User: Which sequence fits this backbone?
């Protein structure tokens, strides 16, 4: 069985400050982990994915995430927030090599000027 | 790459009516997925096709729901005798199977269903 928990439903940061979106997962199998972003009226877009290579994964738009097996976490970070980062972010787990993806409930990121 | 397209973008229907949504995946993609997303929640997996074969259906997909993917290209999702609880965003995604770890999903913008 697999599940994913996003620890914050809303995160608010000021432009230029760091972003941290937290995600914990549970998986009976070796997991593949993803972060997707959803902007209003746009489709979900893959930010980055972890599939057993390097534990620190770099994605698009300056985001990165670190896979920590001991903590069952896959937190998303960005050193400096931009106004265009305001969106809904989803942490996703799936069984490596499988097809069924489990989405977290999402974290809404607000960026203040 | 024209992306995944879904039609219609919005659908308003009365309870008890049937509705059908269409998804056109990226042309070379052999996998196609349907998800449902309600307000404040992440997308929930509904069903999955590899080419024209429907390989998995979620328990969320009641008997009123049916999905097809004839010829392994576009897909349709039909909901019969709609209920107010069916109101949600229905998302389609496609991917290209590759050797190794999970491939990237490409999502459409979704069909927003409102059942009155």
Assistant:
């Amino acid at each position: 069985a697999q599940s994913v928990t996003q620890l914050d439903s809303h995160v608010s940061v000021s432009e230029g400050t760091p972003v941290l979106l937290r995600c914990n997962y549970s998986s009976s199998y070796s997991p593949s982990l993803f972060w997707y972003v959803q902007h209003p009226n746009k489709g979900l877009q893959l930010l980055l994915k972890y599939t057993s290579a390097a534990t620190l994964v770099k994605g698009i738009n300056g985001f990165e995430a670190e896979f920590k097996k001991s903590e069952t976490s896959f937190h998303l970070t960005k050193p400096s927030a931009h106004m265009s980062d305001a969106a809904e972010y989803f942490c996703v787990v799936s069984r490596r090599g499988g097809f069924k993806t489990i989405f977290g409930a999402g974290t809404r990121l607000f960026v203040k000027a | 790459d024209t992306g995944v397209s879904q039609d219609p973008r919005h659908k308003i229907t009365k309870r008890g009516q049937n509705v059908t949504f269409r998804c056109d995946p990226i042309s070379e993609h052999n996998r196609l997925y349907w998800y449902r997303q309600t307000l404040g929640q992440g997308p929930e997996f509904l069903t999955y096709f590899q080419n024209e074969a429907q390989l998995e259906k979620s328990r969320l997909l009641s008997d009123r729901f049916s999905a097809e993917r004839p010829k392994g290209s576009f897909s349709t999702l039909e909901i019969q005798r709609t209920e107010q609880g069916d109101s949600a965003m229905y998302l389609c995604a496609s991917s290209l199977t590759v050797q190794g770890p999970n491939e990237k999903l490409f999502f459409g913008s979704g069909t927003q269903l409102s059942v009155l």
